[in-house]
Amino acid sequence: MNFKDITGQEEVKNTLTQALKQNHLAHALLIRSDDGGAGLSVAIAFANFMLCPNRSETDACGECDTCSKTKKLIHPDFHFVLPYKSLSEKDDDQGKAEMMSQWRSLISENIYPTLRNWASHAEIETKQISISVKESRRILYNVSLKPFEAEKKIIFIWLPELLGIEAANALLKVLEEPNQRTQFLLVAHDYEKILPTILSRTQLVSVRRFTETEISNALIKDFGTEPEKAEQIARLAEGNMNAAKDLVHGMPDNNLALFQNWFRLCYGQKMVDLVFLSEEFQNMGKEPQKNLLQFGLSMLRESLIWNYGNADQIRLTVEEKSFMANFSKVIQANKVDKISHWINESYYQIERNVNPKMVFLDLSIQISKIIKA
Ligand SMILES: [Zn+2]
């Protein structure tokens, strides 16, 4: 992976490449972002940058033999330590090989995976996932080796917060005795759960969320999403590219039309029509149902800004604005709170597989009551 494969995030790319150039790089970096954020891919691209002998000022060449190996995550000096299921002594080597092949296939599909994505890809229960003591001992062994091809080898630890105490102590040992031939890259989400003794031996690099513009540009470029829809999704994704990509696949093109029609029926208390509409929602499937509810929440939030905020802060498409002009007159602030509460409730019920027709019908009745109150 190259830096250019990651949309935006210029500040952190710059910080890292400059630190390397000026020899200011600590022997262990802790790169931190949200779950599903850009931290993981930034770290992989930086490893590629460090290993590439033909790199430019700003990126790996992407074409040399080294780049072709790092791209496939098979470079012999690029070691991965990952949370995984616990393996018996006997399955250890085979298990590690299996883990790496699952990891390679995950990253080739998704460069912003969440822990949950990894667990489901590798078919592990999330609660059984951890970095084992054996993995930590393997770090000790790898550190003792000379690099095979590069000047330095890279030990890449994804989610050090999932190290058990014993495993963390093994890691601590190597972090305490840095050697010139090893670069540690730790990539974390739950930064607070990492042992302070480990934190104190690393240099922190924070990777921010994506901006809405970065997300909508990436969606237009990678998926050919229509600009208006890309903007809508970027707003819902709240800086998370992974969530945005899920929304591309799960979001009906006509969320606004659906929502508009639904609210019109609630406003008119058209109960018979609402029963039919709930059936229609039921047939959409779970992800689109959740997305419609999320869309509703974002419309309610925007209506507050519309009524009380600064017009510059309005983040709506042209079509949405024309809807909002009427919507915001009907839905005053006290109603926004109440309706948002019921939409949130419904969202959790849908997640828990409660019958969607009943959920949407109940919700419609609540909304009708609140609007008319
Ligand atoms: Zn290269």
What sequence of helices (H) and strands (E) makes up the elements?
HEHHEHHHEHEHEHHHHHHHHH
CATH class of the largest domain: Alpha Beta
DSSP strand count: 5
Q: Number of domains in the coordinates?
A: 3
- Which fold name is given in CATH as the topology of the largest domain? Rossmann fold
Features:
single chain; 373 residues; alpha/beta; Rossmann fold; Zinc Finger, Delta Prime, domain 3; 3 domains; 5-stranded parallel beta sheet; binds zinc ion
Detailed description of the structure:
The protein is α/β, with parallel strands linked by helices. The chain has 3 domains: 3-208, 3-Layer(aba) Sandwich (Rossmann fold), CATH 3.40.50.300; 210-249; 252-372, Zinc Finger, Delta Prime, domain 3 (Up-down Bundle). Helices cover 58% and strands 7% of the residues. The protein contains 17 helices and 5 strands. A 5-stranded parallel sheet has the order 2-3-4-1-5, with helices on both faces. Strand 3, helix 7 and strand 4 form a beta-alpha-beta unit. Bound molecules: zinc ion.
Please write out the topology:
Blueprint: H1 10-21, E1 28-32, H2 39-51, H3 65-71, E2 78-81, H4 92-109, H5 115-121, H6 133-144, E3 153-158, H7 165-176, E4 182-188, H8 196-199, E5 203-206, H9 212-223, H10 227-237, H11 241-250, H12 255-267, H13 271-284, H14 286-308, H15 318-330, H16 333-351, H17 356-372
The protein binds zinc ion.
